[in-house]
Write a structure and sequence with these properties.
The strands form five sheets. A four-stranded antiparallel sheet has the order 4-8-7-6, with no helix packed on it. A three-stranded antiparallel sheet has the order 9-13-12, with no helix packed on it. Strands 1-5 form a two-stranded antiparallel sheet. The model has no long low-confidence stretch (mean pLDDT 84). The protein is built from no helices and 13 strands. It is mainly β. β12 and β13 form a beta hairpin. It is globular.
Amino acid sequence: MLNAKFSILSDGYTKTGCYNLDCPGFIQVSRKLAPGAVLPVSTSKGRQVYMKILVYRDPKTAHWWLRIGDEWIGYWPRTIFTTLASGATRLEWGGEIINEGRTGHTTTDMGSGHFPSEGLDGVSASFNTLLYVDQNDKVMKPTSVSELVSRPKCYNLKVLGDAGGNRGYTFFFGGPGRNADCR
């Protein structure tokens, strides 16, 4: 199972930031799911689970809505934001771990725990059909994408870009954390 984590950050993890329902102001509307809920996950080289996740700024209210699948989970009111009240200038998709250890890198897996170089479909974690809604409420594909991998011997990334068909814009990511090359 996967703990779905949604974060709000205003200073790159320096002093502020919160996760899930620890973030003040989130208005829950779903009786089924909440930020931080445990969701089903794929099994590496086994059953694959696909889910649609949408974070959407309503152009009428300027609230930021969260939807998983067909379920509207809730929203962050525009009043809790300063710069996001009028829209976003950057989007980020990816994986994250927290390494609080002082004696080397954590063994925490990212994604399935497999590097993209070990296999793509059914092996490493992925994001598929990446889209965003622009300021005119039009659904768009990413066009200007930059890659960031802070510890490539611990975790890595393989960007396919627009793979076409049902897959759309796709990337694979993950890794085992501490290993012989990552200390």
